[in-house]
Design goal:
- With 220 residues, this protein is an alpha/beta fold.
- Helix content is 36%, strand content 15%.
- Helix 6 links the parallel strand 4 and strand 5.
């Protein structure tokens, strides 16, 4: 009888553990890349000779997933990409934009959107706020592109919880745009602060800080 009770308890624990295991997908830029993890053909940053992040386990998303007991579903991060369709040198980056890649995230329970850095660094046009009927031309500007992205993610992944991550040290126009658009869609925006960087990208300490700030900000 005792053995049966122990077995029942173990089975219940395993069931609870399985139920709590959530699948996480990441839609990002170079900050979320790691060679061999992201899709083949994408530009990557990590590992880099001028940054002390040398193992995939040191990335912010790997640290967060491990800390929470979750599992990675998809990491669709592409170095140098913008949320909108205007990249560096004002080139058309629609094919590699976050919008173009939002249908590649598998079947996640949680989606992290970590973008806007290249839109800021490339000085992509900000545009006007627009929340429906977007054209390709509309989405070459940051504000309508972000709205189109969040709207599309909510419709395509209705059962997933979406979080937007805002890098530190970006210009206020980008910061305020992300706050406004995320509030419109009810998406929690996590604004990073005090992130140590090497060669413009999070170091080991910076990655740890990102993971810790996510854990502190996400209460559910």
């Amino acid at each position: 009888m005792k053995k049966i009770c122990v077995l029942a308890v173990l089975m219940m624990a395993a069931t609870v553990s399985f139920a709590q295991t959530k699948k996480v997908s990441v839609l990002g830029d170079s900050y979320s890349t790691y060679q061999g993890i992201i899709p083949e053909g994408y530009s990557t940053f990590y590992p880099d000779a001028h940054n002390d992040v040398k193992e995939v386990e040191q990335t912010w998303w790997s640290l967060y997933i491990k800390a929470m007991g979750y599992q990675l579903e998809k990491n669709d991060s592409w170095g140098g990409t913008t949320i909108c369709g205007t990249g560096y040198m004002r080139m058309d980056s629609s094919a590699s934009s976050f919008i173009a890649r939002m249908d590649r995230l598998g079947n996640p329970d949680i989606i992290f959107v970590f973008g806007g850095t290249n839109d800021a660094w490339a000085n992509s046009p900000v545009g006007e706020y627009k929340y429906s009927d977007w054209t390709k031309e509309d989405c070459k500007a940051f504000r309508p592109a972000l709205a189109c992205l969040l709207d599309g993610l909510q419709k395509q992944y209705p059962n997933a919880k979406i979080y937007s991550i805002l890098n530190s040290e970006l210009r206020e126009e980008i910061n305020e745009s992300m706050r406004t658009v995320c509030e419109h869609y009810g998406v929690q925006l996590i604004e990073l602060h005090d992130i140590e960087k090497q060669n413009g990208h999070p170091s080991v300490k910076g990655m740890e800080a990102i993971s810790q700030q996510l854990q502190e900000a996400i209460k559910d």
